[in-house]
Design a protein that fits this description.
31% of the residues lie in helices and 16% in strands. The strands form two sheets. The chain has a three-stranded antiparallel beta sheet. The protein has a two-stranded antiparallel ribbon with strand order 1-4. It is of the alpha+beta class. It has seven helices and five strands, in the order ααβαββαββααα.
């Protein structure tokens, strides 16, 4: 019986028919896998880490207080922060200059986690191909522009979110007194 079955399979080219069946079934249920990239964008996962950005409060002031914790947390030494004091208020600081060399960034997010005031954010931007890699050394204004573009909804200053914080912040003198 097995010789007869083998002889029948040889006569009708059974293996070729099985292969043609698989080919025809794929042809009828064709679903493209490749995306036409510039015209079609892939759906990014929620945990995607794109280009870094500096953020602002809703009144347009920068969130960064120049504490240099992001620079210390970065394993690739991508970030350079030059901080300065607010004139007349020695306890308040700000980032006078801020640089990021995105050619060395690992997109690990440690700088975002280290920031105590949430001044850094990971955007969903990934189209940053350039011919000259020196264009990927971003300064403070460029990083703020990325943040403005990627985070259109900004949060209020911390003092306005939590009035009790302003009561204990002796350096911020323009706030109204706490009601007793």
């Amino acid at each position: 019986m097995t010789k007869f079955t083998a002889w029948i399979k040889t006569i009708i080219f059974y293996e070729i028919l099985v292969g043609m069946k698989a080919t025809l079934s794929h042809l009828l249920r064709y679903k493209p896998i490749t995306l036409q990239y510039p015209h079609e964008k892939r759906t990014l996962p929620d945990s995607y880490r794109g280009m870094l950005a500096l953020l602002r409060y809703d009144d347009g002031t920068e969130k960064c207080v120049g504490c240099d914790l992001c620079e210390a947390a970065c394993p690739s030494r991508v970030i350079k922060v030059f901080s300065a004091e607010v004139p007349g208020e020695p306890t308040k600081r700000f980032a006078k200059e801020y640089y990021m060399d995105m050619t060395r960034c690992l997109f690990c997010g440690l700088c975002v986690d280290a920031c105590p005031v949430d001044a850094l954010g990971m955007t969903r931007e990934f189209e940053w191909a350039v011919y000259d890699k020196r264009q990927l050394r971003l300064n403070k204004e460029q990083l703020l522009a990325i943040g403005d573009r990627s985070y259109p909804v900004r949060e209020k200053r911390l003092e306005f979110q939590h009035p009790n914080v302003a009561f204990f912040n002796v350096a911020f003198k323009n706030l109204p007194e706490k009601e007793a």
